[in-house]
Design goal:
Keywords: ATP-binding, Biotin biosynthesis, Cytoplasm, Ligase, Magnesium, Metal-binding, Nucleotide-binding. One of its GO terms (cellular component) is cytosol. InterPro entries: DTB_synth_BioD, P-loop_NTPase. This is ATP-dependent dethiobiotin synthetase BioD. The chain is built from ten helices and ten strands. The chain starts with a strand and ends with a helix. The protein has a single domain, classed as P-loop containing nucleotide triphosphate hydrolases (Rossmann fold, 3-Layer(aba) Sandwich). The model has no long low-confidence stretch (mean pLDDT 96). Helix 1 packs parallel to helix 2 and helix 7 runs parallel beside helix 8. The protein is 39% helix and 21% strand. A six-stranded parallel sheet has the order 2-7-1-8-9-10, with helices on both faces. It has a two-stranded parallel sheet with strand order 3-6.
């Protein structure tokens, strides 16, 4: 049975995909068949005659189990905005049953699936904005890994997200501190506060990297904490 984690973030553009790709790499290094899946992705650009979502392409490159880009990102919208709005503009409604079916299809090929949400924890997905990314995590009954973007306001955003995860009956399995603002004042002190207040282990603290490849990011993970999470090792 495939283990599934839901990857969320304190906001958009805080490194969820980078960390998801790094988790995929770290799991593969531990002998696990792993992949990052992004069921809904908004924003594509034309590359060599085909439309590509950057996040889906990164997750596809990080896995080594032979999944296609369509399996990694089954719903890709061209407009770079909130997915329910992009779907409305493009006349492509996002349907809950279709998303869940597409997510479950590649699971037999995997030991671990890291399902990445969109933006923060509560981003609307369907046309009526009645089903959001938090509901998706609950549909999957998946423990949550939070990527906390280290910049001004991160403590409030991280704690509110942790509360929202708990309110939906989900487990915050771990969190990753990802430095978004390399000039952040009191960086270490903010990180220490998050370590003290978030009710889950820190899986790693990522500095601002010039080339945040999956390998480079994974080097900053806490190996023991990750072993406990992925391999159930004490």
């Amino acid at each position: 049975m495939t283990g599934t984690y839901f990857i969320t973030g304190t906001d958009t553009e805080i490194g969820k995909t980078t960390c998801t790709a790094a988790l995929t790499h770290a799991a593969a290094q531990r002998g696990l068949r792993a992949a990052g899946l992004k069921p809904v992705a908004a924003g594509q650009e034309l590359r060599a005659g085909r439309w590509v979502n950057e996040d889906v392409a990164l997750l596809h490159a990080a896995q080594t189990v032979g999944l296609t880009e369509q399996e990694i990102g089954p719903i890709q919208l061209r407009t770079p905005c909130a997915p329910h709005l992009a779907a409305r503009l493009e006349g492509r409604p996002i349907r809950r049953a279709e998303v869940l079916a597409a997510l479950r299809a590649p699971l037999p090929k995997l030991d671990l699936a890291f399902v990445e949400g969109v933006g923060g924890f509560r981003v609307p997905l369907d046309e009526e904005a009645r089903w959001d990314s938090a509901d998706l995590a609950r549909d999957l009954a998946a423990p949550v890994i939070l990527v906390a973007g280290l910049r001004l306001g991160c403590i409030n955003h991280a704690l509110l997200t942790a509360e929202a995860v708990s309110a939906r009956g989900l487990t915050l399995a771990g969190w990753i501190a990802n430095t978004v603002d390399g000039q952040m004042l009191q960086h270490g002190e903010n990180l220490a506060t998050l370590r003290a207040l978030l009710p889950a282990p820190c899986l790693g603290a990522i500095p601002r990297l010039d080339s945040p490849t999956p390998e480079a990011v994974a080097a900053y993970f806490d190996a023991a904490a990750l072993d406990r999470l992925l391999l159930n090792k004490d």
